Amino acid sequence: MYQNKSVTEFIFLGLTSDPLRQKIVFVIFLIFYTGTVVRNLLIIVTIKFSRTLGSPMYFFLSYLSFADTCFSTSTAPRLIVDTLSTKKVISYNDCMTQVFALHFFGCLEIFVLILMAVDRYVAICKPLRYPTIMRQQVCIILITLAWIGSLIHSIAQIALVLTLPFCGPNLIDHYCCDLQPLLKLACMDTYTINLQLVANSGAICSSSFVLLMISYFIILRSLRNHSAAGRRKALSTCTSHIIVVILCFGPCTFTYTRPPTTLPMDKMVAVFYTIATPFLNPLIYTLRNTEVKNAMRKLWLVKITSEGK
Fold this sequence. Notes:
Elements: E1 9-12, H1 19-49, H2 56-73, H3 76-82, E2 88-91, H4 92-125, H5 130-133, H6 136-162, E3 171-172, H7 179-185, H8 191-222, H9 228-256, H10 266-287, H11 290-308
Parallel strand pairs: 1-3
Antiparallel strand pairs: 1-2
Helix pairs in contact: 1-2, 1-3, 1-10, 1-11, 2-4, 2-10, 4-6, 4-8, 4-9, 6-8, 8-9, 9-10
């Protein structure tokens, strides 16, 4: 990877410098991250081995759980470790790797949410053609395109950051490496580069959010023609998806659609979409989805019973 000759490492200022608050942050985010990994892995395993969760919706949900886990892993472990460190240092190469991972898995999550909306649209608005349109081969192609799109987005972002000269200082007023904090440290006018970054990340966030909201509006409107039972089931599923979309896109749009200025709430917004949202997503999907909860009970009941014998 490209190595900048002037700055070889960056120092995070973190969320707080108070020792007591750092210990509190350590405990809270260790719980959040552990919960994120365990719950998302539980969803992935349940979907993979359950015979009742073979529909495309759950195929995409397993990839959303995977993206959530990796997205949180790109920032949370270092944040947790740094709360116990007096000097929060990250090398230049590790910083660039973190930027790449953050945007790759964040973009993958956005694309998977779009695919889930497409799946719900076809299931509710085109029920008779659903098995033909959303067959397994199509789902695999769609998720492959999501991976390719995420890779292109991340390469475009990191390519712009790698052109920035860093001459010092190397203090990042954040707990992770991201585009906006790094732009502030560059030894050049970053106005043009910031426009390109906003045109990339900002356009993906805002356009995807508008597209998803329009699609769910169409879906909810079409529910008028369904039976009461079908309406309740579809409404429950779509409500879960809409909640996740708002939790995901609200903070991202706030962060990536504005000039590179520092606001007091930036760190808290970043904490919300990098740590809190991946923690909440599996709760939203499992608590509101009877099929997932029943599949989990059956799967683990069979496992416990087999081990008991």
